[in-house]
Design a protein that fits this description.
Layout (H helix, E strand, L loop, with lengths): L2 H17 L14 H10 L13 H5 L2 H14 L7 E7 L7 E6 L2 H18 L16 H14 L19 H9 L5 H11 L3 E3 L2 E3 L10 H13 L5
Parallel strand pairs: 1-3
Antiparallel strand pairs: 1-2, 3-4
Helix pairs in contact: 1-5, 2-5, 5-9
Length: 237
């Protein structure tokens, strides 16, 4: 299967988004086909922790063709059921005194999330400010530091503020997130899929809960929505 086909579609999405900065796109999900899902599978980490179904990447690959066909049909027909994420806690810093909650999706869910992220990223990349670096392709923390150093040198110094909003993503309002999404995406299938991920629930120590706020950190789409919030929030009205 040729990833170039996926790349060509992404370039077209980017071109349309750039030409029409005020348009909310209604037809995006038709781009996702078997080739697209296969490329999403290729880009999904195979050594990550398992989700609530305990299925490994190797087990999923044993019948990959049929699994991807089934996933495509369920995603487009609306029959896809987003499984809850498995929550674990990892140290937030080197001291280990504070823990960060991480949500681990199932492997199949990771593949579908990657497919949707591949669809939305070329669109939103046209809207993000040039000065933003968080979770963006081709940009790293080193690039951000270099840009910061250059600007500081250009103005001859100044104040630099390191600001962190405590538990921001843990308390993110779902309505605000949906409004940011709908400013550029009105594809019903995508809107429903993302809504399913937001409402999928969290499994921790055998207990299932359904938080009304926040996005579990760890999944591909979580990283993408966090990126969109960080890069678009200041311009959203």
């Amino acid at each position: 299967m040729e990833p170039k086909t996926v790349s060509t579609k992404q370039q077209r999405i980017a071109e349309l988004a750039r030409i029409h900065p005020e348009v909310s796109f209604t037809s995006l999900v038709y781009h996702i086909d078997i080739r697209w899902l296969y490329e999403a599978y290729q880009r999904t980490r195979k050594d990550g922790a398992v989700g609530v179904d305990e299925q490994t990447a190797e087990e999923y690959a044993e019948d990959l063709g049929n699994n991807l066909k089934s996933l495509l049909e369920r995603a487009k027909s609306g029959r896809y059921v987003a499984p809850p994420v498995r929550r674990v806690h990892i140290p937030k810093d080197s001291t280990g005194k504070e823990l960060r909650p991480i949500g681990i999706p199932t492997f199949e869910d990771k593949v579908l999330q990657r497919a949707v992220q591949m669809l939305l990223e070329p669109l939103y990349e046209q809207d993000f400010l040039n000065c933003s670096y968080g979770f963006r392709p081709g940009r790293s923390a080193h690039d951000a530091l270099e840009a910061l150093w250059k600007q500081a040198m250009d103005i001859g110094g100044g104040w630099i503020i390191d600001l962190d909003i405590r538990k921001f993503f843990d308390t993110m309002d779902h309505t605000h997130l949906r409004n940011i999404l709908k400013s550029r995406v009105c594809d019903g299938v995508l809107i429903r899929l993302i809504g399913k991920w937001l409402n999928a629930g969290v499994m921790e120590s055998g207990n299932l809960s359904y938080p009304e706020r926040g996005t579990p950190q760890g999944g591909v789409m979580t990283l993408f929505t966090q990126k969109a919030i960080l890069n678009l929030n200041n311009n959203f009205h």
